[in-house]
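Q: Sequence in, structure out?
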Amino acid sequence: MSPLHFGSIAALLVACALVAHADLAAALVPGPCARTATADALSADWIVNAGDNVCGLRDTRMLSNPAKIDYDALLAATPEMQKIKRDGIDPSSAEGIQLKQQAIDRVTKACENVRVAQGHCSVWKSISHKDGRAITDITDLVKAKL
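A: Exactly. Output:
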């Protein structure tokens, strides 16, 4: 078997493996590759929008102790967003976009620190459970880390 032929077979096997595990990759990798949650893919008990996940587990079938935050209040409390407001920086300008991304990163890191320290499996902008159970709000704890 020629090396070229072997390389093509290896590439085909890798491609098949990626397609076979696309659902797993979408659940683990945040960002544009993640797919919107569908009713059959998620547990019917948790009511979430996949885009509301800040950090931690994304797969609702795996959730055990999620927490929620007031995301807009946390963003507004960051030095970066306060600078945008104080200095009148256009949020759609290059500097405004950079500052907003830094604010998002700051909130995400603070959420991750509190999530781990408090023993939560994930942090969400909005989450509820069909049985009406209370979801711990960690906004104040996260704000203290900013």
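The two ends are 59 Å apart (CA to CA).
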